[in-house]
Amino acid sequence: HSLTNRLPAALEGHEFFIEYQPLVRMCDGGVEGAEALVRWEHPRHGVLGPDRFIPLAEHTGLIVPLGRWVLEEAVRQACEWQVRGIGGARPLRVNVNLSPRQLSHPDLVSETVAVLENAGLPPESLCLEVTESAMIRADDAELKPLRQLAELGVGIALDDFGTGYSNLASLRRLPASTLKLDRSFTRGLQQHPADPVDLKIVEGIVSLAHVLDLSVTVEGVETAAQAAHLRELGCDSAQGWYYARPGPPERVTVPLPLAA
Ligand code: G
Ligand code: G
Ligand code: MN
Ligand code: NA
């Protein structure tokens, strides 16, 4: 695969860049942080999304150095926001996605701690996103590093929640602090009146999460109606095109639509 072969040179040649998508607090509509989403500015194919190259990088192992670069760059950016006082009294956080290969890498904890210390970012200002399916596949040895990071204060989010068939018992054993509800659950909430079954499902997931002391972030919020329903249902934060599309770091500092 020609994209696969070019990955090392692309990393070397600084062809990757990061877009940020704001994470919005439901209670007051303020920005609490942003998710870092990597892109590849390919010299011939233009900008490629992560779905085009993350699986290839995961397959070859290049995801490890690429993921380390994403982490360093996102942590540096979060520091810059904090130094500039963006977010006011509550410093902004950055969310970084981790792929399964990074999860099982022996240096995950030491490297993450080193990146935070070098930049001077508090561990609480970093959240690592791991997909629900990768998390439930992980054995205790693979969950241990995440648990260590969680004990240091790093947030751990279960990404794409609802697509990975967790059960109650498995949720209890995971070192997660946040559940990111997959956008497939919120499609039925785009209109007023919302789909009553979808409302009940989200309501149930939110109460389960809160019992387990997990905060709930909803992905893929595209309309004001969805935002209003989700706030009503007790979701803690939201992310989606209604608030902002992924964009350059400045995207996080511009005003958003008022909380519904
Ligand atoms: O931005 P976009 O919607 O195209 O992202 C698609 C998927 O790519 C998301 O599910 C996201 O989790 C994943 N992704 C984005 N950036 C990264 C990254 O830096 N590392 C990993 N492992 N996955 C990422
Ligand atoms: O990590 P994850 O796979 O959840 O990454 C989020 C992905 O969802 C990104 O690729 C981002 O571009 C996409 N996305 C973000 N907001 C919305 C939205 O409101 N609607 C849709 N359809 N996709 C979104
Ligand atoms: Mn994610
Ligand atoms: Na997701």
From TrEMBL:
Domain annotation EAL: ranges: 1-260
Residues shown, of full length: 424 to 683 of 685
According to its UniProt entry, this protein's organism is: Streptomyces chumphonensis
Protein name from the UniProt record:
EAL domain-containing protein
